[in-house]
Amino acid sequence: MLVERLIESQFPRWAGLPLHLAEPGGSDHVIHRLGEGLAVRLPRHADALGQAEKESRWLPRLAPHLPLAIPVPVAVGRPGFGYPWSWAISRWLDGEVATADALAQSREAALALAGFLGALQRLPIHDAPRGDGRDLADRDDATRAAIARVAGVFDAAALRAVWEAALSAPGWDRPPVWFHGDLHTGNILTVNGRVSAVIDFGGLGAGDPARDMTIAFTLMSRTTRAAFRAALGVDDAMWARGRGWALTTGLNAYCSYAATDARVAAQTTRQITETLLG
Hints:
The protein is α+β, with helices and mostly antiparallel strands. It folds into 2 domains: 2-93, Phosphorylase Kinase, domain 1 (2-Layer Sandwich); 97-277, Aminoglycoside phosphotransferase (APH), C-terminal lobe (Aminoglycoside 3'-phosphotransferase, Chain: A, domain 2), CATH 3.90.1200.10. The chain is 42% helix and 15% strand. The chain is built from 10 helices and 10 strands. The chain has helices at residues 2-10, 51-62, 100-103, 107-122, 140-149, 156-168, 214-218, 222-232, 236-257, 262-277, and strands at 19-21, 29-34, 38-43, 73-77, 87-91, 96-97, 177-179, 188-191, 194-198, 205-207. The strands form 3 sheets. The chain has a 5-stranded antiparallel sheet, sandwiched between helices. Strand 1 (19-21) and strand 2 (29-34) form a beta hairpin. The longest helix is centred in the C-terminal third of the chain and has 22 residues, at 236-257. The N and C termini lie far apart (47 Å).
């Protein structure tokens, strides 16, 4: 098995530990549990390159200042045995992936995530990466094409109105702050029904934090979304841009996966619908 060979050759101290595929995996990484306390993450495609090095550099600096657990990097692996990319070993984080069914009405969860983002945004950004370097305008053509594709399922005019409001909203005019960059239900863990950890920091960067508002439309209800927004102090312009991020990412996932994955179809349908609600 490839993962076993990579571990044996590069990290022999962990060779022989039980190795189990973690399901469901992520869209960007294949994840294995190594022994009781470690996770092995291998990128599935080139778009996930560099995440192992980014997390190894930045997460240990951020973790002590955040109110929720985040991954603890342990080692960065090299390409080998035909596998072409760097990969990562981190501490295993216990918990279940957050779901809207469980947490949509939880004010506690909404406030916990607002507290996490507020703490993240207050941290110094010296030498911080820029994330993917893209903004909403870069996604305009693809988003309008996606709206046209889903016109038989969703209200295309309403989708265009949300999107155009996002594009026309005033931009971030303050100093850049940290953002997670890919904050949706799949990157939130819970223990005993309470938010416990935030994972997958491949989109970590500094700039406009509006993209992190996506979590309000993937996990929360209209009521808990209002509590989240108030706790974080989000103004109208950022909220409009955040709805734009939720819409464009939801449409992209819906168009890419909904036809073949019922779970993604349900999640992205809810995300798009909640984005329309505001």
